[in-house]
Amino acid sequence: MTQLAKSSTRSLAAVSAATVLLAACGGGGGTDASTGTLRLAVTDAPACGYDHVYVTIDSVKVHQSASAGENDPGWYRIALPGMPKRIDLLDLRNGLLEELGQTALPAGRYTQMRLLLTPNSASAPYANAVTPTGSAQTALTTPSAQQSGLKLNVNIDIEAGKLADFVLDFDACKSVVTAGSSGKYNLKPVISVLPRFIGGMAVDGYVANSSPYSSVSLQLNGVVVRSTVPDPTRQGYFSLPYLPSSGSNYDLVITDPGRGTRVVSAVPVSATAITHVNTASQPILLSNSNSQTLVASAAALNAIPDATISVHQSIGVGKEIELASRRVDSLDGSAAFTLATDPVQLASYSPTLAPLSWLPDNASAAQFSVRSQVIGSPLQSQPVDLRLGSARVDFSY
């Protein structure tokens, strides 16, 4: 089920024969016996209520010391052709990549990466910008640390004579933060650095009737590992590549506030083959659902702009899934969610790709757990029952 690339610089790396394994797994591309090569690309997870999220990447550099300052010696820049490069992150879903470039590096372990974005200016006012659904393009306020770059902690081993291949997973949903009713948006990038594989470590499938609010995620023990949205232009196709570990205990979670939540359990992940959950001829069909609104806030004397609110749901016996997660508004400290309140529909993965058999988990209907996470503070959690209508939850710090 290989999907065609959108352009010569973009590819579905999870299934592309041109991609090579992480350095520890072999590969080629080094220039001599003492150097290897690092190659980078960018991808994105789903966004929340945006049609476009643009960032302009100026440069990327790496260092072998996690504590190195921006002016210390020992930095290596990645050769990025055509930089600065303006990228719409929402074009980069379901494994689609924007290739950044590659560079030869001395063999060794690199533990710090810095990503530099071009700031908005009079000549380029929308270098970094967002287009909320139904609204006009708006400039993104970028962090003051842009001059020194966004610091990412990494563990990248460069082996002599080999190619280390990595993807920067830019989570647009958590990176764009609203600022009350001001109409302004702040960019606080949330980025993961993931190895790029061929042949396996990926799950894909089809959702027949997704909406703009549908999300597909692969979760392990209730923690989201990768997420995306079905592509209506490709028969609802979704792809979840760059998975960190193999095994058979993953849950495929499909959420949509108007069409209910579905969970496929015991989805296997293999290092040698892509796991197909279903085929285009037997797509997952979502059912209409009732829904309610949940508003949560995290506040002390003022809003806590770096607080993250997440919504969870218990299913079956001793199992939990995450439905949504986002940063609170930077001014009022709140986050709003529209949640499906009908029972979660459960099915088990079929290795023969037989039609999935769905059963309702009636105990899950309208029952949620809401959590607030603030760096440096204990996790807070409150149960929420939406059977009687919308609700609000307040967390104090």
Automatic annotation (TrEMBL):
InterPro entries: DUF4382
PROSITE patterns membership: PROKAR_LIPOPROTEIN (PS51257)
Keywords, alphabetical: Signal
Ranges of residues in domain DUF4382: 35-189
UniProt signal peptide: 1-23
This protein's record includes keyword RNA-binding: no
Record carries keyword ATP-binding: no
UniProt-recorded name of the protein: DUF4382 domain-containing protein
Organism: Malikia granosa
